[in-house]
Amino acid sequence: MSDLKFSNEHEWVDVEDGIATVGISDYAQEQLGDVVYVELPEVGQQIAREGQAAVVESVKAASEIYAPASGEVVEVNSALEDEPGLVNGDPTGGGWFFKLKLDDEAELAGLMDADAYQEYVEELG
Amino acid sequence: MDGTNGTDSESIKTTPLHDSHVALGAKMVPFTGYSMPLQYPTGILKEHFHTRESASLFDVSHMGQISIWGDGAAHALEWLVPGDIIGLAPWSLRYTQFTNAEGGIRDDLMVTNAEGRLLLVVNAACKDADLGLLEIGFRGAVDVAMHNDKALIALQGPAAAAVMARHAPASAALKFMTAGTMKVAGADAIVSRSGYTGEDGFEISVYGEDARHVWEALAAAPEVAPAGLGARDSLRLEAGLCLYGHDIDETTSPVEAGLLWSIGKRRREEGGFPGAERIQAEIADGATRRRVGILPEGRAPVRENTEILSAGDEPIGKVTSGGFGPSAGGPVAMGYVDAAHAKAGNAVGLMLRGKKVPASIVKLPFTAHRYHKD
Fold first, then answer.
1. A60, B353: Cβ pair inside 8 Å?
2. CA dihedral in degrees (B71, B75, B77, B78; nearest 10)?
3. Does residue B353 belong to the interface with chain A, where contact is any CB pair within 8 Å?
């Protein structure tokens, strides 16, 4: 958990061997409320940095999820199809969205660590 | 209920129950100029299901409560609405609309015949305009007053009657769309058996100073949990009920909106309300578009303003309310389509993020109404 990096769009990234697992933060799921649907990218799809990668829908509204770095989608969390509530219940674990094979790991250099993200969220009020 | 968000934090208003919502941990949002609870910590889904399974308490004090009285008040109101007000029995409610000269809808409202006065409950976003409309329309012939000192609390769900019976025994005698004056938890109240969820339930008008006491007495019942605007919206959508500013507005007529049931026989024949020409023509010849229920295939919610396509991919209308229906177990929507495509069972397409989602036209409501009719 301590290795998670966060974007200012409230996504988290966990990198291992050039593969980035991506999800949304606890703060983000709290803001969204009950998640009822997640539209995931296709495996094999190439996504550009800050390109739209997924859509998460709560009862109230739809929100777009952007790729924190460029890469190819190598896996998606198909458990979310039947159980979108995992995003609320376990946002940084079982509620992950997709895995990206990164084009260039250096693209993640600007992300925040957990402490910096915590400060960022607190500043948002 | 109107969906226009007020955003001016300088002038935001609060209801008499504001402190209760904050103490309960509600997520407060600006809504039609008021700070209102969107949801409590339990979340919209649980609040929705709790309403269908037990009973939920809603603060709807942002809505306008107006009374009109004096000789000919019912006649005068009929100048402005197509509903049969003269024929409204004492202590009965009627749903109707303020129409405009083109037959569109300026607001929708509930009217109660409170013997000697008519009580109107109107949408928050329209209430000042409605008050002006009544004052100008009546030209002083009938007295009009807005009751900004009143709160409105809704208790909705199958357990509502049992809870109310403990705090207001007289409520047990009320049937759907009737009302009475009574004490609720010791406070003077006007109670109607009505609501916006499709469930049995009550709407309780009390003085602002009594609101917190009444709210807390009802909230203390083991069957009851608070619910916010989020659940109110998913519940009314499943129940097929219109949200002003979305499913009905200044351009939609009551006939297009499928609200002809709210216009009695005498008014259909006699007219005498704004826009009667168009509305009577649509009654005779049918409207060119119709509000319909839309059931998308799959799991993706389809939202307001989504384009609706015919089987032949021609644009035939737009979604006016859409989202996830917790009790329906999937996405549900309402919208307007050309009359030729409005038949239940018709296959249509919905353009969602550049892809066409198959859907069908269905009869409303999505969740059967469970009103206390007899």
1. no
2. 180
3. yes
